[in-house]
From TrEMBL:
InterPro entries registered for this protein in UniProt: BBE
Keywords: FAD, Flavoprotein
Stretches assigned to the Berberine/berberine-like domain: 173-222
Gene3D superfamilies registered for this protein in UniProt: 3.40.462.20
Protein name: Berberine/berberine-like domain-containing protein
Pfam families, alphabetized: BBE
Record-level Gene Ontology MF annotations: flavin adenine dinucleotide binding; oxidoreductase activity
Length: 222
């Protein structure tokens, strides 16, 4: 802690030629002044490597390497934003974020084709009305292992700060950003505490489906 300042990185993925992507982005966001040499055109599987975080010289073969390249730790939490957050509120969050260089936010925009599917049509319910999701992350190394509790408490403080700016009733969460703070596997209404945050109104239907398909609980949530 102690280093002030932060930076922003924007990543995007477009299915189609880069000339089309540049035209669309310059029409919607002319202030970017995007040019074709700033875009990389590649196959879909190469894009998986690109977004994997393995490094710029990685190949498709590296995706099959199950060995950890470096051991480390992280804590993650998530939110959904359904209404515009004011600049003042964002500044409050960013001021806190700026003093912890090991932490960052990932904001994934929603909309488009996702919004054309009704919330109850598929298990994933976070559809129309969501502007974007937020993943709160903090990472630390083996050398910093003794400060793990401190880092996790810091992230929980940021999550608490954001409470009035995000979805409510319930405060929703993204299931692939598993957050044990929300609760762990239980029976019946115990699991509802975290289950409805991940699945909203689909929770009861999913419970009935699991009881019919997986009565022995082979597949389970931590």
């Amino acid at each position: 802690m102690g280093r002030a300042g932060f930076s922003a990185t924007f990543k995007g993925f477009y299915l189609g030629p880069k000339s089309d992507a540049v035209e669309i982005l310059n029409r919607r966001f002319p202030e970017l002044g995007l040019i074709e040499p700033e875009c990389h055109e590649m196959s879909w599987i190469d894009s998986v490597v690109f977004f994997s975080g393995l490094g710029v010289n990685s190949t498709m073969s590296d995706l099959k390497d199950r060995a950890l390249r470096r051991r480390g730790f992280f804590k993650a939490k998530s939110d959904y934003v359904r209404a515009r957050i004011s600049k003042r509120d964002l500044k409050t969050a960013f001021d806190l974020l700026a003093v912890e260089p090991k932490a960052y936010l990932i904001m994934d925009p929603y909309g488009g084709a996702m919004s054309r599917i009704k919330s109850g049509d598929l298990p994933f319910p976070h559809r129309d009305g969501n502007l974007y999701s937020i993943q709160y992350m903090i990472e630390w190394t083996v050398e910093d292992e003794g400060r793990g509790k401190e880092y996790m408490e810091w992230l929980r403080g940021l999550y608490e700060l954001m409470g009035e700016m995000v979805s409510r009733g319930p405060r929703a969460a993204y299931v692939n950003y598993l957050d044990l703070d929300l609760g762990v596997t239980g029976n019946g209404n115990d699991a509802r505490v975290w289950g409805e945050k991940y699945y909203l109104g689909n929770y009861d239907r999913l419970v009935r489906a699991k009881m019919a398909i997986d009565p022995d609980n082979v597949f389970n949530n931590p």
